[in-house]
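Whiteboard transcription, Tuesday session. T.W. wrote the structure tokens on the left side:
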């Protein structure tokens, strides 16, 4: 009589190997260099792809199970948020500007990262990296979808949410994150991993997600908190993938070190410029603030970054070249950004405002060495202009940095009273930059950055031809509804009226 033998349950490590590495094969009728043409031209030397280890050892069957469970929980909460008029539970309608800038600038970046990692899953020869990149590609697409779905409920009631895709492609401040991700996706696979997998996901992502999601919770926005929590478990894997890939490159060949260090220098500075938008959300756009941009930088930048680069020092890696200039800019950048958004508020798909007396008292406390000295006098002057009926607006075209595409609104690292402007020439054309970091990036790859699409020159080209109204139509901006001062806006009036109805016994 045959006896039934219980099948031995596979260990996690063995199951991972069978469902990932053992599915790969060595090509016979095609040259491997022709199959993976992009792995050598960047100069990175890889001798053994099997040396790369995925510490999570997650297989696709487990991945789908985990993600499906998160989807069920996410959409249950989003549905409850909509049915219970969650759009009225936020602290104040000013908070909506933070959501608008997130949807316009960050969510499309998630989608771009998804496309980039899908490409990496095809271009890397190692089976372990292929599987990990494919999972992250799905993650990034899912993050874009959940963010759009969560914020779509606000589009039913408030202005500025309706044309975020047009804003992503055409709005002047949205070209900043767009150019960042386009720059990364158009790089080679190893540089892309440094740009997104390491510099953005590991070094900088906590400065975006953790304070912003905490701010959403403080301000009663459970929709945003929900998609943030849903994404954070994915971010842990993303951070590990980026760190493991950089260590893998450095361990494979000592010749990789200077290339990797150059990419770390470049992508730290590019990411730091993008995060200027986050600094403004944290310091100015949250009615109830969880922490200042300075406090977030101290925790997630200095403490975490110092520990990270101390760990990588054994490979020969040093802190990024722009680290010291970034530290000097922290106490200034959110104020400079908000002053820029205010003076060009007619050309934004969100509202801006003059900080209240309470706001300025908080800013002075959080920035004791800079706010009262350099920025309170500007806001007080703008307040006087508004009281006199001559609200400040700058209809001149801003000079844009050729690299990061931000208006040149920043000051010198060691002199906050002087505007930082750099100029260079290439092939007979002059180019402008906001910092030494951006100029150095351009000079290292000028042929790439002379092709940058800048929004300001578009104003004078077809179909706009210098017509401001035509430009607003082109970017999907409804003048007087989506833009301008928050005081007296439809969003303010509607929120106040609906909140009063919801809390009244009448």
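and on the right, the sequence the group agreed on:
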């Amino acid at each position: 009589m045959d006896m039934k033998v219980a099948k031995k349950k596979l260990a996690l490590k063995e199951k991972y190997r069978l469902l990932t590495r053992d599915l790969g094969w060595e090509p016979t009728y095609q040259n491997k260099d022709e199959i993976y043409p992009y792995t050598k031209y960047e100069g990175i030397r890889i001798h053994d792809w099997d040396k790369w280890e995925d510490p999570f050892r997650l297989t696709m069957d487990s991945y789908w199970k985990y993600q499906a469970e998160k989807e069920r929980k996410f959409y249950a909460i989003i549905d409850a948020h909509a049915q219970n008029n969650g759009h009225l539970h936020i602290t104040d309608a000013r908070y909506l500007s933070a959501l608008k800038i997130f949807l316009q600038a960050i969510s499309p970046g998630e989608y771009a990262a998804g496309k980039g990692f899908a490409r990496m899953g095809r271009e890397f020869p190692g089976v372990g990296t292929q599987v990990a990149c494919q999972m992250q590609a799905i993650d990034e697409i899912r993050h874009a979808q959940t963010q759009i779905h969560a914020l779509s409920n606000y589009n039913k009631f408030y202005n500025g949410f309706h044309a975020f895709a047009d804003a992503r492609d055409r709005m002047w401040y949205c070209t900043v994150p767009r150019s960042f991700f386009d720059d990364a996706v158009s790089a080679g696979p190893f540089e892309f991993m440094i740009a997104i997998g390491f510099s953005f996901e590991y070094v900088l992502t906590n400065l975006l997600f953790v304070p912003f999601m905490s701010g959403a919770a403080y301000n009663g926005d459970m929709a945003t908190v929900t998609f943030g929590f849903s994404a954070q478990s994915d971010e842990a894997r993303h951070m590990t993938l980026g760190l493991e890939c950089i260590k893998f490159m450095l361990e494979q060949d000592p010749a990789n070190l200077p290339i990797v260090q150059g990419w770390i220098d470049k992508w730290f500075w590019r990411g730091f410029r993008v995060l200027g938008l986050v600094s403004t959300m944290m310091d100015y756009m949250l009615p109830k603030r969880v922490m200042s941009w300075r406090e977030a930088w101290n925790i997630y930048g200095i403490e975490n970054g110092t520990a990270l680069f101390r760990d990588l020092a054994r490979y020969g890696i040093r802190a990024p070249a722009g680290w010291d200039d970034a530290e000097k800019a922290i106490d200034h950048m959110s104020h400079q950004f908000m002053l820029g958004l205010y003076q060009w508020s007619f050309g934004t798909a969100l509202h801006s405002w003059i900080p209240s007396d309470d706001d300025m008292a908080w800013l002075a406390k959080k920035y004791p060495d800079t706010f009262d000295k350099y920025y309170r006098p500007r806001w007080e002057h703008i307040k006087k202009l508004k009281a006199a009926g001559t609200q400040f607006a700058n209809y001149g075209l801003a000079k844009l940095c050729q690299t990061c595409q931000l208006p040149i609104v920043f000051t010198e690292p060691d002199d906050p009273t002087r505007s930082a402007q750099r100029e260079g020439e290439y092939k007979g054309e002059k180019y402008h930059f906001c910092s030494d970091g951006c100029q150095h990036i351009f000079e290292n790859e000028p042929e790439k950055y002379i092709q940058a699409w800048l929004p300001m020159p578009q104003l004078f080209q077809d179909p706009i031809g210098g017509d401001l109204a035509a430009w607003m139509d082109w970017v999907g901006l409804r003048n007087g509804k989506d833009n301008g001062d928050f005081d007296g806006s439809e969003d303010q009036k509607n929120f106040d009226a609906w909140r009063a109805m919801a809390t009244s016994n009448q």
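Someone added at the bottom: The longest helix spans residues 222-252.
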